Amino acid sequence: MTGAAVDTQAGLNAAARAAARCRAGWLARVKITDPESGKIVPELFEAEMAKVLQGQVLPVMPAQPEPATVADVLRAAGTKEYRPLLRIRLGMLLRYQPGWGKGKAEAVVDHVLSVTGAKLDRRLVNVGWLLDPRAGGRRYTAWLDALEPKKDPPWSGFPHTRSCSVD
């Protein structure tokens, strides 16, 4: 291997590590809130960062960042600075929220896949796939539908009788 190829490979490896640290930092921000109070728990933050980053310090993350929501991650993923967030799997992003588990997260991803008609393995569904502009917002709309709590039927007798508001 030539010296230029080694330098290029080292640069690519450093970029990949920086992208992984960026994703890990955001996931830790989502997971560090107390489910009952919604406040940041410094011990959780430190434990997650130590576990995920293996003791490395992420320079762009302050010592105690503001907690992030899934919406914050999706919004940040659209910026050039946080482009690595596009590779976060949707199931992993949901599981990191307080009160969510693997089953609930997979059910949301499965709902999005079934509504959009995509024939993908749920492990391949990431933020980039969800926000891809070529889908025309259909995937994101299915995502919002999956996250909306389902209530009672819209009217009694649904779906076998007509709504009283239909002319």
Verbal overview:
The protein has 167 residues and is mainly α. It is built from 7 helices and no strands. Helix 5 crosses helix 7.
Cα gyration radius (Å): 20 Å
Strand content: under 5%
What is the overall number of helices? 7
Give a short account of the largest sheet.
none
**Could you tell me the number of beta strands?**
0
Throw out a few tags for this protein.
167 residues; 51% helix; elongated
Chain-wise SSE layout:
Layout: H1 3-31, H2 42-53, H3 70-77, H4 90-95, H5 102-116, H6 127-131, H7 138-147
Outline of the structure:
This protein is mostly helical and 167 residues long. It has seven helices and no strands. The chain starts with a helix and ends in a 20-residue tail after the last helix.
